[in-house]
Amino acid sequence: STQAMLEPKADLEQLLGGLHEWRDVQGVIRTIFQALVDVAHAQSHAVREVERRTGEMHEELTQGLNRKADVSELRAASAVATDARSAADLVAQRVEEEAQAVLEAQRSASDEVQALRSGLSELRAALEKQRADVQQWRAGFEAGLSRILSECSSDVQATQEELKGA
């Protein structure tokens, strides 16, 4: 189209440059009108191209605006995000509290286990002492029984001997 616009212009300049040589006025006018028609066609084509591009840009702009969120949607999304953040903070706080409670329960259980172990050790020591006392008492009891038996046996022999001698 640019080439078409340049050629008639060159013809026109040729014609105008040689004003004193005009012989065929009808041919010159025809050439001028042809050049004007070619320029009008080229401009019409350029205008249609600009209109087409403007229409495409208008469609793209309309689509972009349709996709764009409005203020109320943004406020609603912000409120949802704020609510979600608050809920997450509350859950995190509750998890932290539960973790602290579990830690305290674990410490308490550990202290109780230690106390039970200590109490069990004391019970074992007391049981061993009682066992030793029982063995000592048994040994003393058996020794006492043995001595009583020995004395009774001696008395029985002495009584038997007295009875035999009488």
Briefly summarize what is shown.
This protein is mainly alpha-helical and 166 residues long. 93% of the residues lie in helices and 0% in strands.
Question: What would your notes on this structure say?
Answer:
The chain has helices spanning 2-17, 25-67, 71-165. 93% of the residues lie in helices and 0% in strands.
Overall geometry comes to: rod-shaped
Q: Could you describe the largest sheet, including whether it forms a barrel?
A: none
Question: What is the count of DSSP helices, taking H or I runs of 4+ residues?
Answer: 3
Can you give the mean pLDDT?
84
Write the layout of secondary structure elements.
Layout: H1 2-17, H2 25-67, H3 71-165
Structure characteristics:
mainly alpha; 93% helix; 0% strand; 166 residues
